Amino acid sequence: MRCSLRKVIKITICLFILVFSIILYLHDNFEKSLAQGQSLGQKQHGVVGPVDQHSDIELSRKQRNAMSVETIKDDAKEKIPKVQPSLKSKNKRTEIDDIFIAIKTTKRYHDRRLKLLLNTWVALAREETYIFTDGDDKLDVPEGHLINTNCSNSHYRIALSCKMAVEYDFFMITDKRWFCHLDDDTYLNVPGLVKLLQTYNHTDDWYLGRPSLRHPIEVMKRSNPEQKIAFWFATGGAGFCISRSLALKMMPHASGGRFMTTSDMIRLPDDCTVGYIINNLLQKELTVIDRFHSHLEALWWIHNLTDQLTFSYSDNNIVHIDGFSKDQDPTRLYSLHCMLFPASDICDTLRKGLPIA
Question: Tens digit of pLDDT for each residue in 261-295?
């Protein structure tokens, strides 16, 4: 009796499984037939592929996103100089608008030092001059030409290299041919600089400046303290210029904040780090321009002032030139500027004995 009952249960289970399988098979075939009919109808109406009830919504979202991206791109084109993958207008003679002039300063010197530059030579290159500082301020410069680097306001290595790193990266997003760096106590003969750079090809590797030492600087190699590294560098106080071709080669060691890493590796400030990258790592020579001058040399010995390109000053080291009184012009740079460009507005102001705005 028990055996018969077991057989009945097994047969019942088998029949149930068989019936359930047949039902699933018929259901699947019905759905496939329905899907084929829908697909045929879709093809007849020019639609390829399955139609999702959210397809119109997704298409609309993609269109809106694409339009937003294009709008952002268009806005960026207006605000940020276009990055050029190659050097443009190679056969065109270099002009003032091909030069990127960077002034490194700090907010506490905006009135004491920067004001003098803005009143003199910067007026001849307003659109080409960018001021890299450590604080916001209201200065009479074109919009976007006063860059708060958010670096420290100290005069130590890390702060100085931080600003130089921002200068370099800012130059690289432009299509300028030349990167020229100056300190906030440096006077620049703008037409003279243009004439100088016209004699060099920006598509070649050029590092133009003047060293403050009569010998290469030496530092210990951190990976091997017994080994010394020697290289030349152009002092930032006199100013220096780098061609775009050479600036591009500096990217592995300077772009995207890597300049700070390189500076930290040799534990030297900004202008030394530039020289280390160019003269040591890239093995490119410094071309000495003896018409660049800093306050590290005897400025009163300089003759033929009209032929020089940069000047500086310190408390007891100034250019010897007649002109305005020492009360009006203690640095002698106003007198120098008005000798070079006597028709400048600031010169008329000083001649009348009026206060400088």
Answer: 999 999 999 999 999 999 999 999 999 999 999 99
Taking the C-alpha atoms of residue 132 and residue 104, their distance in angstroms, rounded to an integer, is 5
Express each pLDDT in 61-100 by its tens digit: 333 233 332 332 333 333 334 333 344 456 799 999 999 9
Are 281 and 266 contacting, i.e. CB atoms less than 8 angstroms apart?
no
pLDDT tens per residue, range 188-201: 999 999 999 999 99
Query: What structural domains and CATH numbers belong to the chain?
Result: 96-288 (3.90.550.50), 299-352 (no CATH)
CA-nearest of 139, 98, 108, 109 to 122 is 139
Q: What are phi and psi of 32, to 5 degrees?
A: -65, -40
Q: Give the angle 215-218-219 at the CA atoms, nearest 5°.
A: 165
339/324 Cα distance (integer angstroms): 11
> What is the DSSP secondary-structure string of 103-125?
EE--GGGIIIIIHHHHHTGGGGS
CA distance 186 to 312: 5
Give the Cα separation of 209 and 170 in Å (integer): 21
- Return all residues near 82 (Cβ < 8 A) that are at least 6 apart: 175
Q: pTM for the whole thing?
A: 0.75
Exposure on the CB side of residue 356, measured as CA atoms within 13 A: 17
Contact 201, 93 (CB under 8 A): no
How many CB atoms sit inside 10 A of residue 150's CB?
Answer: 11
- Give the residue numbers marked as catalytic: 271
3-state secondary structure of 224: strand
- Residue 266's alpha-carbon distances to 63, 101, 164, 259, 276, in angstroms, are 51, 26, 15, 11, 8
pLDDT tens by residue, 210-251: 999 999 999 987 777 778 999 999 999 999 999 999 999 999
Note the pLDDT tens digit of each residue in 14-73: 565 665 556 555 545 544 443 444 333 333 333 333 333 333 333 333 332 333 323 323
